[in-house]
From TrEMBL:
<protein>
    <recommendedName>
        <fullName>Rhodopsin domain-containing protein</fullName>
    </recommendedName>
</protein>
<feature type="transmembrane region" description="Helical">
    <location>
        <begin position="139"/>
        <end position="166"/>
    </location>
</feature>
<feature type="domain" description="Rhodopsin">
    <location>
        <begin position="44"/>
        <end position="290"/>
    </location>
</feature>
<feature type="transmembrane region" description="Helical">
    <location>
        <begin position="60"/>
        <end position="86"/>
    </location>
</feature>
<dbReference type="InterPro" id="IPR052337">
    <property type="entry name" value="SAT4-like"/>
</dbReference>
<comment type="similarity">
    <text>Belongs to the SAT4 family.</text>
</comment>
<dbReference type="GO" id="GO:0016020">
    <property type="term" value="C:membrane"/>
</dbReference>
<feature type="transmembrane region" description="Helical">
    <location>
        <begin position="225"/>
        <end position="249"/>
    </location>
</feature>
<keyword id="KW-1133">Transmembrane helix</keyword>
<dbReference type="InterPro" id="IPR049326">
    <property type="entry name" value="Rhodopsin_dom_fungi"/>
</dbReference>
<dbReference type="Pfam" id="PF20684">
    <property type="entry name" value="Fung_rhodopsin"/>
</dbReference>
<keyword id="KW-0812">Transmembrane</keyword>
<feature type="transmembrane region" description="Helical">
    <location>
        <begin position="261"/>
        <end position="285"/>
    </location>
</feature>
<feature type="transmembrane region" description="Helical">
    <location>
        <begin position="190"/>
        <end position="213"/>
    </location>
</feature>
<keyword id="KW-0472">Membrane</keyword>
<feature type="transmembrane region" description="Helical">
    <location>
        <begin position="27"/>
        <end position="48"/>
    </location>
</feature>
Length: 424
């Protein structure tokens, strides 16, 4: 552990270990409140993906890991502030606490990096699921940009954690006051400050990169602006990261009173991590709102009690449903498609962000999405066919004998009854 120079130590006032001036318990309070909010929003996101849309994916696993590391980080800084002097001047911290203070500081840096990077990766993966696979032109460029951003986030996080862990040789020299063997250490302040600057840049990129994608979605302008506003909440994370970086400079480079001057770092880091988790989870909550509170999404999502349907406009519905003749490819493949009725419904997955639609008729009742996902119908499809439509905006279609289910990679479902295929 690198102690301040002798002249700096001599300039410090006499330590007060009994009744020192402290910053209070703000870190503990902010950590509890922010972690609770992030946990609630993330939990609602997972509930939506698992129970309502049945489309849980890798982005959900990443956000869960990010939340767990964020909670662990909040616990570490709360313990450090409450029990080990991170809320007072450096000269009021007992010497016997300093090794533990250094260990907690190293743990805090690693947990922060893990939580921040996993949250950003989850957000980017979510955007990639919206984009889908097999896009051409502009969508292919978006896909490459998302992959590049994910790689940049992962590489920068691994590099920072590696430098933090191995900045001293041997490693225990980082927290030992008087190492018994020769050692060498890198400049801890320079490492953390550089990582903070890179983190601000990646935060800004992650906030901006989905904006062109959202603007090009097949949505009404009002919905696109609303969705972009949700994504733009990530700018709060950028602001918190900038504040944290300023205090990293002040406490670790411009001053030796790290525990007092650097105290705002703890608050900014807590806000940054938990607001990031909330912003990454908020876009996935739209199906949940549409399911329980459709009025919040406008008149087109309100329940029509006379027909038992939650519907979108017919124009939007036609973008997902087409009536077509059986193709030659299908005829050769099965040999029986020539006899199918001409009004057979084919459901296509398109790159849109829309809420689910329940379509019920008097002759073919369909349960709601929540019931279907929780208690799937017991039937054995006689034939299942997976093919790709020629349209540039279509992703594979799936025809089932009982239900055609439209699920857009983590987005809401559309349930449409379809007639069974003819038996052999």
């Amino acid at each position: 552990m690198q102690l301040p120079p002798a002249e700096v130590l001599a300039s410090w006032p006499e330590p007060n270990y009994i009744n020192p001036i402290t910053r209070g318990h703000s870190v503990l309070i902010v950590s509890i409140v922010c972690s609770a909010l992030a946990t609630i929003v993330t939990g609602l996101r997972i509930f939506t993906r698992v129970k309502i849309t049945c489309t849980a994916g890798m982005d959900d696993l990443l956000i869960i890991l990010g939340l767990l590391f964020g909670i662990a980080m909040a616990a570490v800084i709360s313990v450090a502030s409450f029990y080990y002097g991170w809320d007072r001047h450096m000269w009021d911290v007992p010497l016997e606490w300093l090794p533990t203070v250094s260990k907690l500081n190293l743990t805090f840096q690693i947990l922060f990096s893990l939580s921040a990077s996993l949250t950003k990766l989850s957000f980017l993966w979510f955007c990639k699921r919206i984009l889908g696979a097999g896009g051409k032109g502009l969508y292919q460029a978006y896909n490459l940009a998302l992959i590049a951003a994910m790689n940049a986030v992962a590489v920068s996080s691994v590099l920072f954690m590696g430098l933090s862990l191995f900045q001293c040789h041997p490693i225990h020299a980082y927290w030992d006051l008087m190492p018994s063997s020769p050692y060498s250490c890198l400049d801890d302040g320079a490492i953390v400050f550089s990582a903070s600057v890179i983190n601000i840049f990646t935060d800004f990129v992650v906030t901006l990169i989905p904006m062109p994608l959202i603007w090009n979605l097949k949505l009404p302008t009002r919905q696109r602006i609303a969705t972009m506003s949700i994504f733009a909440l990530g700018l709060v994370v950028d602001v918190a990261g900038s504040v944290r970086t300023v205090y990293v400079w002040k406490s670790m480079i411009a001053s030796y009173d790290t525990t007092w001057v650097g105290w705002p770092i703890l608050l900014a880091a807590t806000v940054e991590i938990n607001i990031g988790l909330i912003c990454a989870s908020a876009p996935a909550l739209r199906p949940l709102i549409a399911f329980f509170l459709p009025r919040l999404l406008g008149p087109s999502y309100q329940n029509d009690s006379s027909t038992g349907r939650r519907t979108r406009s017919m124009k939007q519905l036609r973008s997902s449903i087409t009536i077509s003749k059986p193709s030659r490819v299908r005829s050769r493949h099965y040999g029986l498609y020539e006899d199918l009725p001409m009004d057979r419904l084919e459901v296509f997955r398109t790159i849109e962000m829309n809420t689910y639609t329940e379509i019920r008729t008097s002759t073919q009742p369909v349960g709601n999405v929540y019931d279907i996902c929780r208690n799937p119908p017991q039937y054995t499809p006689r034939r299942t066919h997976l093919s790709r439509h020629n349209s540039d905006m279509s992703i594979p279609l799936l025809l089932l004998t009982e239900y055609s289910v439209l699920g857009l990679r983590g987005m809401p479902l559309i349930l449409i009854p379809t007639p069974p295929l003819p038996q052999d």
